[in-house]
Design brief:
Layout (H helix, E strand, L loop, with lengths): L4 H20 L5 H13 L7 E8 L2 E8 L28 E4 L3 E3 L2 E3 L2 E8 L6 E6 L16 E7 L2 E15 L2 E14 L2
Antiparallel strand pairs: 1-2, 2-3, 3-6, 4-5, 6-7, 7-8, 9-10
Organism: Cyclobacterium xiamenense
Keywords: Signal
Pfam family, one: DUF2911
Length: 190
């Protein structure tokens, strides 16, 4: 039986590929795991980079972690982020806030702890800001459950002339400012 060169080449290539694939096994290198962890915490290779901020409001330490989506030419309010629906106030996993001491949010008491931050955007009305006890949600609002809400307050957004491409959450002297596109949502914390 005669095998032509093409079939021989094809058969050898296939055998070599199968051999390499079967010998590689799962990667269990701690160096590789460390690189993946750094990429996850720094936001590398993410369409919406992972951001973290921390500081003090008065004498109270506060930290926030969130995914920072970009506008990328999209219609944001009422389209990408629908009005009247719970929004994770960021991208990817749920945005969360960590409080080392009890605080007042918009004048309402909130005990020290970690909370996911959600909002319900509205077109011509105040937005609802939600702090929920389930803070470690991989898929943001897709896992949100209202029965775990610890606090709901209404906040009036302001609209500015200059557009901001990437969502940011900033620590300011009187609380947090959520900024994206032409929105500034001031959340008072004391």
């Amino acid at each position: 039986m005669r095998i032509d060169n093409y079939n021989l080449y094809y058969s050898l290539s296939l055998a070599l590929a199968l051999l390499l694939f079967s010998c590689s096994g799962p990667n269990t290198s701690s160096e590789s795991d460390a690189s993946a962890e750094v990429a996850a915490t720094t936001g590398e290779e993410r369409a919406s980079p992972l951001k973290s901020i921390s500081g003090k409001i008065g004498d109270k330490t506060i930290a926030v972690q969130y995914g920072s989506p970009g506008i990328k030419g999209r219609e944001i309010w009422g389209d990408l982020v629908p009005y009247g629906e719970v929004w994770r106030t960021g991208a990817n996993e749920a945005t969360y806030i960590s409080l080392e001491a009890d605080v007042l949010v918009e004048g309402e008491p909130l005990p020290a702890g970690k909370y996911s931050l959600f909002t319900i955007p509205r077109e011509d009305e105040p937005w609802t800001v939600i702090l929920n006890s389930e803070w470690d949600l991989e898929h943001g609002h897709f896992q949100y459950k209202e029965e775990h809400d610890v606090l709901r307050v209404d906040v009036t957004p302001t609209w500015v002339d200059e557009s901001q491409e990437w969502l940011s959450i900033e620590l300011v002297s009187d609380g947090l400012h959520v900024k994206w596109e032409k929105l500034v949502l001031p959340i008072t914390i004391e």
